[in-house]
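Q: For a teaching handout, I want to show students what a protein-ligand complex looks like in token form. Below are the inputs, and the small molecule is zinc ion. Please produce the holo structure.
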Amino acid sequence: MDKLVETAIYARKKAYAPYSKFMVGAAVQGKSGRIYGGCNIENASYGLSICAERTAIFKAVSEGEQEFVAIAIAADTPGPVSPCGACRQVIAEFGIEKILLANLRGEQRQVTIEELLPFGFTKGDFRC
Ligand SMILES: O=c1ccn([C@H]2C[C@H](O)[C@@H](CO)O2)c(=O)[nH]1
Ligand SMILES: [Zn+2]
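A: Here is the structure, written as tokens, with zinc ion included.
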């Protein structure tokens, strides 16, 4: 199995999801080669919860990584997990080209950000 998917599955085990009980893991690889894992972290004030994808990307950025090779996302879903709109927007921000969606049954699908977020808002939209 792809190492990035394996890391996402491992990161999922750390999820803090007492409310939804839906555990998600992600792993992003920076151009430096380093891999950063992330999990979803929920809150009693539900809206403050953060997804696994954004945890992983924000961890990486806070470590100085701003260019990425790929991201993998994994959850216990019937098919490969589909990231939420907020995470699609953050993936688009960093132009991550290789996006691997996976589940725990070993099903995997590679998609592009254009497929996930067609006609998305980008920094190009407010530069005149
Ligand atoms: O791609 C996804 C979809 C959902 N979640 C989290 C948010 C919330 O904690 C829980 C249920 O939506 O799953 C993620 O982390 N990533
Ligand atoms: Zn999300």
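A: Two things your students might notice: Strands lie at 24-30, 35-39, 68-75, 98-103, 108-111. The chain has one domain: 3-126.
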